[in-house]
Each structure stands twice: as structure tokens, then as C-alpha cells.
Amino acid sequence: MNEKLQDYENSFNKMRQKLRDGKLDHLLIEIEVSTPPIDISNSGNIPPEMANVQKSILTVIAVIITRGKKGKRVFHLRIGQKEGIA
């Protein structure tokens, strides 16, 4: 095994142990959330102009809901993972 890979594995194992021991619980992890694609193909028989307006409104709503970064504490992620919810 090459030296670079061994260094990576050692570092990874140290961080994993810190996580398990709760030494990282105070840290905040930021996750950037992208806007989900919007499918309006099931809009029925509406005129194209209305479909465009509907698409624009849904895009604005999706951007408002999912904009920016979401933060989670390591502690909450670790507890959620144990409970099967993270």
C-alpha cells in the first residue's frame, strides 16, 4: 500500500474515532441544498401560457423553500443516524 493511501486511512480512522467519542458534537456542518426539478407534465389541458406561469410560480416557491445552506450539528446527525432518521 502506498504511503499517501496509508496516511489517508490513518487520518480517516482518527476522525472516525473522534466522531464516535463525541469529540466533534459541537461542530456545525453546512449542507448546500439545490432546487429540486419541477415536473408539470401532468398539468392537464391548460394553455401553454398558463403552463409557463404555473412553472414560474412553482420555481419561485421551490427556490424560497430550499434556498441556501442548511446547518446541522454533528451531535444531531450522529443521534439521527443511530435512530435511522438521518
Series of H and E elements? HEHEH
Residues in helices, as a percent range: 55-70%
Count of individual beta strands: 2
* Overall form: elongated
Tell me the fraction of residues in β-strands, as a range.
5-15%
Rounded mean pLDDT score: 74
Main sheet characteristics = 2 strands, antiparallel
Tally of contiguous helical segments: 3
Low-confidence stretches: none
Secondary-structure content class: mainly alpha
Q: Termini, distance in Å?
A: 34 Å
Across the major sheet, the strand order is 1-2
Supply Rg: 22 Å
Note down, in words, how this protein is organized.
With 86 residues, the protein is mainly alpha-helical. The protein is 56% helix and 12% strand. It has three helices and two strands. It has helices at 3-21, 48-66, 74-83, and strands spanning 28-32, 69-73. A two-stranded antiparallel ribbon has the order 1-2. The longest helix has 19 residues, at 3-21. It starts with a helix and ends with a helix.
SSE map:
Layout: H1 3-21, E1 28-32, H2 48-66, E2 69-73, H3 74-83
Antiparallel strand pairs: 1-2
